Structure formats: C-alpha cells, structure tokens
Amino acid sequence: MEDLIAAHLDQLFPGMEVVEHHSFRITRNADFEVDEDRDEDLLQALERELARRRFGSPVRLEVSDDMTEHMLELLLRELDVDPGDVIQVPGLLDLSCLWQVYGVDRPLLKDAPYVPATPPAFGERETPRNVFAALREGDVLVHHPYDSFSTSVQRFIEQAAADPQVLAIKQTLYRTSGDSPIVNALIDAAEAGKQVVALVEIKARFDEQANIKWARALEQAGVHVVYGLIGLKTHCKTCLVVRREGATIRRYCHIGTGNYNPKTARLYEDVGLLTAAPEIGADLTDLFNSLTGYSRKANYRNLLVAPSSVRSGIVERIRRETELAAQGVPARIRLKANAIVDEQIIDALYRASQAGVPVQIVVRGICGLRPGVPGMSDNIEVRSILGRFLEHSRIMHFQAQDEYWIGSADMMHRNLDRRVEVMAQVKDPKLRERLAVVFDSALDPATRCWVLQPDGSWAAQPSPDADSRGVQVRDHQEFLMRLRRPNQQ
Question: Average of pLDDT values for 453-472?
Fold first, then answer.
C-alpha cells in the first residue's frame, strides 16, 4: 500500500514538487495507569485512559533503510524520539500485509484443516453427553486444539447455564472472542435466575475496550461483575459451577492454561482440567470469595495461587527434587512455559542441575536461563517448538515426587508478583500419562525444534538438511494430531 501511495504522491499534492519520500512507523507506549482507589467509576476512568493511548510517548521508530539523514533528523525532532530507539528496516515495515497473501484460496499451499476431537468422556451418541455425569465418573483433561473447545469447556459452561439444578456459576474472563458464546451462556444463566459472578479483567492489554463492552452487557443481564483485586491483574483461567444433586451440593470446576476464547482455542495449544474433586471445588470457592472481596485467603489446600504461593511452590518442589536425587531416588524436572526469567526459579534450577538432576525445558518465548554451561547448568536442556499452533500451555513435572501441575502462570515477575494465577495438580494416573506423552514427544531427540546454546544463541535441531541426509525428523504437533485423530488425513 505504501508503494502505491508513493507512486502517486504527485496526485495527492498537486502543484507541489515531491523532493523525497520514505516510509516510517512509530510505536507508542501502550501502558497507562488508573487510580483504582480514587476513581469511583473504573470503567469510565479506563475509557478516558484508552482515548489517550494513541498519544503515548514514542518507544520505537522504524524507518526504511534508504531514509536520508536529513529526513531522519526531522522525524526525531518532530516526534521527540531518542536516536537509540531508531531501527532501520531493509524491507516491509508492516508485515501484516502478508495476511492478504495467506488469504488467497490455494489449499495446496496451506496446512490441511484439522478438526478437533471431542474428548471421549464427552462423546456424543444421539445427543451430547451430560458433562456433569461424565465428571462424576472422573476428571477429564482437555488438550486444545487437538481436543475441541466447543464440545468440552464451552459445553460445560453452556450446560451449566441451561441446567435447572445449577445454582451458581463463577468465572474469570481475561480475553474472549468478539461474539463470545461463553459470555452469552453467562447472560442466559443470569436471566434464568442463577447466581452468576464474572470477574472481568478490564486491564487485559489491548482487550480493554472489548472487556468493557462485555462487562456492561453482563451487568445489564444481572450478572454480578467484579474487577478483581486492586493492584493485581486476574490472569487465571477458572470456572466454578455449583449444582444441587438431591440433598447435597456438588461443585464442578475447570482450571486451564488458556483463555475462554473458542477462536484462539483452535490456534493456541493449551490444556485444561475439568473435575468434580471436592478439594478443588473448595479451593476455587475460597479463591472466588477472595477475588470478590468476601475474604482474604493466601494459602490453599491443593492449588498454588499467585502472588502468594506459585513462586515458593515451584522453588520448593525443585528443592525437594534435588534432595530426593541425593537420596538415590530417580529424579527429573520437566517444564513447559511461555517464558522463564524469574531469578529465584532459575537459581533453583541451576542448583538442581549441579546436584545431578536432569532438567528439560520447553519454552516458547524468552528464557533467561543458560543451559549447558560447565559446572553450572550441565544437566539443563532448553528447546523451543515452532509450528502451526502457538505453544501456550504451562505444565510442570517433578518425577521423584510424581507430580504434574498445569496452570496459567509463566515464570516471570509480572505473573508471580502482580497477577492472580492458579496452578492445579493433575492426580489421575491416566491424565498424567497424557501429559507425559506431551513431554516425551516435545523432548524426543528427533523432534524438529530450536535448542538454546550455552552462549544464548538458538540452533535448529535436527539440522535443516537432516531430511536430505536421511536423518529421521518428526513433528511434535503433527504427532499429537495423529494421536487424537488417527484416521484424519
């Protein structure tokens, strides 16, 4: 588009001489502050700040690499940009235009569509199975996008909204879709007379306006909408359903690693636990009471909850794994995360490595840990998997303690100190085996990935020419797709 405009500048500025032209792009600071103690109407205060976002201070100036010094100095002066924040780009400044190329209808040039599978526990016969009956038989682990979001998590919430025996639904919402069936189900539940509590995180970056819209729609339907604890973002993915069953009350729960968004659930890899375990239900009840202001609880029976106990819980389990290894117990730590930068956790992993504990990490983004450094991290391996789906789940495995955990927290200061996050232990042996398969596949020596080197660089593994040399190469995500749907081409 910029090339098209540049070619016709004489028509845009008739009677003027176009001396030179160049492309540039400015990135502005999107952060803002709202005084949650002072502002009586949090939504209005947030909307005022959102209107100011496009005037935020510049943090980056991208310019075409053919821009003259004179023109660059003019931009720096007029935009008040520091020279250190300038990036010269030899090519397109806005690669989002390539989506138009992807939009061309050429199926042979794209991945074959994958149809997610309905979890066997929720399998349809003539009609969809009752989710609550299935959960009374045992916990269910869902792995998106290999497992369908719409026939598992979404169905769980929709059936709860329609079930006359359901008394209450409590849910956190961080990001959701524009035409959210989850929000619509909560509205239906409230209009049916159920007690519905929705904790809407209106400070979710770049989703603030959408979440404000949903918050108002929920309030108009009679949903009790809360905005969480002052000074903390509520990032956990939790849902609690309270149901009357005869003379008793039973609680059903969902705890996940990804948002309640059916669109991203087809693109992001995430896991979730659906359970009727009384101890998990009791913990989530306490958590929602804390988030809605009815109590202040820091310690939970079976959950790790940030900012109080996720970091300490992880460090304690790393320390315990190290101690058990010293006693001769076979030990190993396997972690899957989006980012690992917390110093306390990294130091604990270094100590575990020095004690001889193998540490295997699958990380999608930034990693502040250096593996393979002699005397410090010899026993640590870090790899990253890039594929058609965005690897988004957070999973932890401590072999000597025989524990698997899943949840919303990454190992970063913002998650561990400034957000409400939840990690839950997966106890069912069959479900733990499914998580073991995820780790085994991701960490297989033949799996195509990027491996972090001791100097901080990344190297492709196997090497790019492995196929031509006859070296076996496997794709982690294709393996999981075939595992879930073996007959799908």
Answer: 82
Q: Is 103 helix (H, G, I), strand (E, B) or coil?
A: coil
Domain ranges across the chain: 2-102, 120-297, 311-484
**Would the CATH topology of 120-297 be identical to that of 311-484?**
yes
Alpha carbon distance 442, 323 (integer Å): 27
Question: Higher pLDDT residue, 464 or 83?
Answer: 83
Domain 120-297 top-level CATH class: alpha beta
Residue 424 makes CB contacts below 8 A (sequence gap 6+) with 255, 273, 280, 302, 303, 405, 406, 407
Give the strand pairing for 233-234 and 419-426: parallel
The pLDDT tens digits of the residues spanning 219-266 come to: 999 999 998 788 889 999 999 999 999 999 999 999 999 999 999 999
Summarize the confidence of residues 131-143 as an average pLDDT.
97
DSSP 177-224: -TT-HHHHHHHHHHHTT-EEEEEE-TTSTT-HHHHHHHHHHHHHTT-E
| Mean predicted confidence (pLDDT) in 277-299 | 89
CB distance 214 to 188 below 8 Å? no
Residue pair 254/140 in contact (Cβ under 8 Å)? The answer is: no
DSSP string for residues in 38-91: T-S-HHHHHHHHHHHGGGPPEEEEEEETT--HHHHHHHHHHHT--GGGEEEESS
Predicted TM-score (pTM) of this structure: 0.88
Nearest to 286 by CA among 314, 312, 325, 253: 253
Active site residues: 235
Chain mean pLDDT for the chain: 91
β-strands 58-64, 86-89 pairing:
parallel
Greatest distance between any 2 Cα atoms in the chain: 85
> Up-side HSE of residue 442: CA atoms within 13 Å toward CB?
27
366 closest CA partner among 414, 296, 426: 414
Cβ contacts of 100 within 8 Å, gap of 6 or more: none
Contact indicator for 314, 411 with CB cutoff of 8 Å? yes
Q: Which of 46-50, 348-352, 407-411 has the lowest mean pLDDT?
A: 46-50
Report the CATH number of the 311-484 domain: 3.30.870.10
pLDDT at 51: 64
C-alpha to C-alpha distance for 146 and 87, rounded to whole angstroms: 39
